[in-house]
Amino acid sequence: MKKLLLCSLALPILAGCALMSGRTYVEPRDYDLTLAPAPQINHWIVIGGFRNLSGTDRRFLFRENNGEMTTDDYNRWLLSPDQLLTRKVYEQFSGEAKKGESVRLNGTIYQFEFDRNAKKAIFGISYSLRPQSSQEQMYSFSTEESAADDSSAAYAAAMSKCVERFFAHISSKL
After folding, report:
1. Cα angle, residue 161 at apex, residues 59 and 26 outer, rounded to 5°
2. R_g of the chain, CA atoms, integer Å
3. What is d(CA 80, CA 61) in angstroms, rounded to the nearest whole number?
């Protein structure tokens, strides 16, 4: 009787081990934007806010051949795109060294994705700049950058290049 009881208790444990033995745990990787220093400007940028309408949260978002959008649960951004841009704008354009007029920056991110077939990063944003002493100006900016290979690190580096171009674009408008 004891043997039967022990066998009935051990059976679910052994079955669970057998089902899980084929899978290994994959540690998710978090990526940040790595940017070269932005061009020098004589303005201090104040973030009004970024909205994220790209469909991307923290997970990498891939556009497939048939228009399907897929996410990668194991490769993701450190923060959501709107938070990444906010933090990077503060790092690149804010600080005590900026003595000029303040400029308010607002934006809506509408593309922050990767095209798996073309192996490229795609970034698109509509934004406004409002200098302290003049009226608000509206702009739209989009760019693409090829990934060096099909790795997650290469895709993240390509998106970093896209954001660098955006910052250079902002600098040219000030």
Report:
1. 30
2. 23
3. 12
Number of helices (H) and strands (E) in the chain: give both, helices first. Answer: 3, 7
pLDDT of the residue at 135: 93
Tell me which long-range contacts 83-88 makes (C-beta under 8 A, separation of at least 24): 84/32, 84/33, 85/50, 85/109, 85/163, 86/47, 86/49, 86/50, 88/33, 88/35, 88/163, 88/167
SS3 47: strand
Which pLDDT score is estimated for 108?
98
Report pTM.
0.83
Q: How many CB atoms neighbour CB 92 within 10 A?
A: 20
The DSSP bridge pattern shows strands 59-63 and 44-52 to be unpaired
Residue 61: CB atoms within 10 Å: 21
pLDDT at 12: 59
Q: Which residues of the chain have pLDDT under 50?
A: none
Amino acid making up residue 129: L
Per-residue pLDDT at 102: 86
Cα(124)–Cα(144) distance, integer angstroms: 9
Do the beta carbons of residue 155 and residue 121 sit within 8 Å? Answer: yes
